TrEMBL record:
Coiled coil regions in record: none
Segments forming domain PNPLA: 36-243
Keywords tagged on the record: Lipid metabolism
InterPro entries from the UniProt entry: Acyl_Trfase/lysoPLipase, PNPLA_dom
Protein name in the entry: Patatin-like phospholipase family protein
GO biological process assignments: lipid metabolic process
One Pfam match: Patatin
Domain of life where this protein originates: Bacteria
Length: 353
């Protein structure tokens, strides 16, 4: 049978899985969530299995969750008391509650997605995330610097153009316009305190700033408004600008990094999407198990691809909703296949090193 999943793992992850006879929840140290907008719809069934089943098994140590943009919304769902219900609210809001005028401005897009975030969080989401006994949430935003601090569209557009041009030479140039900020609930135990690849600031997640940080983490420059986060300077933008697919140093911990992703490759930053030579290498992923939809699964979907922001322009509202719901329903098979691989002990055999 053709597999619906692509599984890739670094050498330390392969060795760990072979030594322990498969994947155990208590051996997972970190769960990353990438930027990707509507693409989270396409792995919804995989998330339902991971969030509602595998990652709910007993743990002896904290699990660190880190996300940028829609990845941070996924991690916020996982850290709620009922993560499957939170995911369902998020999917419903993203599919059916994104309704826009023919030419929405940044304020309208921000307002619509702000209400979608509120629906995902529900009445108790903020409290549940911050009080979770074992899950520690990390939310990445891009704190503005220089021209990127302006709310005026021409200046912001100039800042983004300069950032994109300089990024072709080196990712470190992003520091001229943006500073990676990680809001988290892990305190001094965060495994990301050592990051030095880009200027990085760590701030505590609090009841006052969690919602704003989540909104900022998905606020695409020029499409949405920047967000001012209580207790943090400047405007904050989409965390995917600096960390699109989270090509981070995950450290030398004893356990695994479990990465449910949209693709079988990792693009470091938002401006790297159009740079085919700018793909993550193996260095940061030695202990990572990456799980993504296979080409066979993608070929079975409407349009043979995951949902995308351009669907708002290519299809009527009704057609977009129907396509996205169809893809969400189909994604249940991803979770079913992973469950079978784990329970039958065949997971290691399905992995590509």
């Amino acid at each position: 049978m053709t597999s619906l999943l692509t599984l890739r793992a670094g050498p330390a992850a392969v060795a760990h899985l072979r030594e322990h006879g498969g994947l155990r929840a208590d051996h997972i140290d970190i769960v990353p969530g990438a930027s990707g907008g509507a693409k989270w719809i396409g792995i919804g069934g995989l998330d339902r299995y991971l969030f509602g089943h595998l990652l709910q098994r007993p743990r002896s140590h904290p699990l660190h969750l880190i996300g940028s943009s829609i990845g941070s919304w996924r991690m916020a769902s996982l850290a709620q008391r009922d993560p499957v219900a939170a995911l369902a609210r998020g999917h419903e809001a993203y599919i059916y509650r994104q309704r826009y005028s023919p030419k929405p401005d940044a304020r309208e897009v921000s307002d619509v997605l702000s209400r979608a975030l509120d629906y995902l969080l529900g009445a108790e989401g903020v409290h549940e995330i911050l009080s979770h006994p074992t899950f520690r949430v990390h939310v990445i935003t891009a704190e503005s610097r220089g021209l990127a601090s302006s709310a005026r569209r021409p200046l912001l557009a100039t800042a983004m153009a300069l950032a994109a041009a300089a990024n072709i030479v080196t990712r470190r140039s992003l520091a001229w316009q943006m500073k990676r900020t990680i809001f988290h609930s892990a305190g001094d135990d965060s495994p990301f305190l050592h990051l030095r690849d880009l200027p990085t600031v760590h701030r505590a997640l609090t009841p006052e700033n969690l919602r704003a940080a989540l909104l900022a983490s998905g606020s695409i420059p020029l499409l949405m408004e920047g967000v001012r986060i209580p207790g943090a300077p400047g405007l904050h933008w989409d965390g995917g600008v600096t960390d699109y697919h989270l090509d981070l140093d995950y450290g030398p911990g004893p356990g695994l990094v479990l990465y449910a992703h949209f693709y079988d490759h990792v693009v470091p930053g938002w401006f790297d999407k159009s740079l085919p030579w700018r793909r993550a290498g193996a260095a940061n992923f030695s202990r990572t198990l990456l799980i993504a939809p296979s080409p066979a699964f993608l070929a079975s979907l409407p349009g043979k691809r995951l949902p995308d922001r351009r669907d708002f322009f290519d299809f009527s509202e009704a057609e977009r909703m129907t396509r996205w719901q169809t893809i969400l329903d189909a994604s249940t098979a991803l979770g079913d296949e992973l469950h079978e691989l784990i329970e039958t002990g065949r997971l290691v055999d399905a992995i590509v090193p």
